[in-house]
């Protein structure tokens, strides 16, 4: 099969399509014939040599994919059959013509969505869903049938103000819509008026251009000095002081990326302590299988139906561009230039 490959870490020019061995599904796995896979920042970091796949995961790039079930491995429980269309959360391997997936990580494609749209859902939307609803919980459900969304002070609440950095990204556009669905008030930061306008169309109550204004002062003004209850931060170091400045008392700051760098310089702890704030770090790719099964199940039952309904509660993946996999270098360069509003999707050769 053909797969996106690079021989050594480095720039986008190292990427190309290579013929590699087609995987075979193991116990409880299905083989998915991939139609499309979306890009994530993790792909860029892995290509650069800074984010190796978890132990046992495919070294091929791609954390989400859509396509059709091509083969069932031993031990599959009959939830899927050959030919079914599906989308999948992956730890790697999505940017290839075939990928093996634990059957519990597959989700049905909502009615009315194309395979290209579906490829933009799993990693970004499940990340946003867990940041808003599950991060901070520690004990997994005892029953595999239990949907794990207990009331928690760490879960987003109706009326909460949520500040979403990189509001036009895949996770950002998902988080805006999911926050609105939960009755929260999403605010976003972005680097252009075009991106802010898109965020507001999706339901953001306000947007702040971080290149032109101090987003922390703007957020405090919007909340009449109260501050924001929840911050979803994929930037990291450069934003720490402004984040704490606009954080409400007892607010939660969830760090899930370091696009701006990891270094800080200043009295982070004393400022956070004065707010009684919580700083929580989260990654999805390295989570264990039980957590991911729970997350996929909860998202499938509670959020997925809203992709097929009309009205104010409808959810919609935002696609910026679709590239054929043969143009993988151009796709990476486009993402690195921070031009995309929503997801960048790769279409795999048939």
Q: Overview of this structure, please?
A:
It contains 10 helices and 15 strands. With 350 residues, the protein is an alpha/beta fold. The strands form 3 sheets. Strands 3, 4, 5, 6, 7, 14 and 15 form a 7-stranded mixed beta sheet that branches. A 6-stranded parallel beta sheet has the order 10-9-8-11-12-13, with helices on both faces. Strands 1-2 form a two-stranded antiparallel ribbon. Helix 6 runs parallel beside helix 7. The radius of gyration is 20 Å and the shape is globular.
Short description:
The chain has 350 residues and is α/β, with parallel strands linked by helices.
Largest sheet: 7 strands, mixed
In which range does the helix fraction lie? 25-40%
Count of strand segments:
15
Structural class: alpha/beta
Assembly annotation: single chain
Order of helices and strands: EEEHEEEEHHEHEHEHEHEHEHEHE
Shape from CA axes? globular
The helix count comes to: 10
Q: Distance between termini?
A: 10 Å
Strand content: 15-25%
- What is the residue-averaged pLDDT? 92
**Computed Rg:** 20 Å
Q: Poorly predicted ranges (pLDDT <50, ≥5 residues)?
A: 136-153
Give descriptors for this structure.
350 residues; alpha/beta; six-stranded parallel sheet; 26% helix
List the SSEs and their pairings.
Layout: E1 2-6, E2 15-19, E3 29-38, H1 41-47, E4 64-72, E5 85-89, E6 98-102, E7 106-107, H2 115-119, H3 122-133, E8 161-164, H4 170-181, E9 185-190, H5 193-202, E10 206-209, H6 215-222, E11 228-233, H7 240-246, E12 247-255, H8 268-274, E13 278-281, H9 289-302, E14 319-324, H10 328-336, E15 343-347
Parallel strand pairs: 8-9, 8-11, 9-10, 11-12, 12-13, 14-15
Antiparallel strand pairs: 1-2, 3-4, 3-6, 3-15, 4-5, 5-7
Helix pairs in contact: 3-4, 6-7
């Amino acid at each position: 099969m053909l797969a996106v490959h690079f021989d050594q870490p480095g720039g986008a020019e190292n990427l190309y399509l290579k013929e590699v061995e087609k995987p075979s599904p193991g116990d409880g796995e299905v083989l998915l014939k991939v139609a499309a896979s979306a890009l994530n920042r993790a792909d860029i970091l892995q290509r650069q040599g800074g984010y190796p796949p978890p132990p046992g995961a495919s070294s091929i790039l791609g954390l989400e994919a859509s396509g059709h079930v091509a083969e069932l491995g031993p031990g599959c429980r009959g939830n899927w059959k050959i030919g079914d269309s599906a989308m999948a959360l992956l730890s790697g391997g999505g940017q290839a013509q075939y990928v093996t997936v634990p059957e519990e990580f597959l989700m049905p494609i909502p009615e009315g969505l194309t395979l290209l749209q579906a490829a933009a859902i799993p990693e970004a939307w499940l990340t946003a869903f867990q940041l808003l609803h599950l991060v901070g919980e520690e004990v997994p459900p005892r029953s595999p049938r239990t949907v794990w969304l207990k009331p928690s002070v760490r879960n987003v609440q109706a009326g909460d103000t949520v500040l979403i950095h990189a509001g036009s990204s895949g996770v950002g556009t998902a988080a805006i819509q999911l926050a609105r669905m939960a009755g929260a008030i999403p605010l976003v930061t972005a680097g252009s008026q075009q991106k802010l306008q898109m965020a507001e169309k999706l339901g953001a109550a306000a947007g702040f251009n971080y290149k032109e204004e101090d987003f922390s002062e703007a957020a405090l003004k919007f909340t009449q000095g109260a501050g924001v209850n929840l911050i979803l931060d994929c930037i990291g170091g450069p934003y720490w002081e402004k984040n704490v400045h606009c954080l409400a008392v007892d607010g939660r700051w969830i760090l899930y990326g370091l696009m701006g760098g990891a270094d800080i310089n200043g009295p982070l702890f004393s400022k956070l302590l004065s707010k009684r704030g919580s700083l929580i770090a989260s990654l999805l790719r390295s989570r264990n299988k039980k957590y991911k099964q729970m997350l996929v199940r909860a998202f499938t039952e509670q959020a997925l139906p809203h992709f097929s309904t009309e009205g104010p509660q409808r959810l919609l993946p935002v696609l910026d561009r679709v590239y054929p996999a043969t143009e993988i270098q151009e796709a990476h360069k486009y993402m690195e230039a921070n031009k995309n509003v929503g997801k960048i999707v790769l279409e795999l050769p048939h």
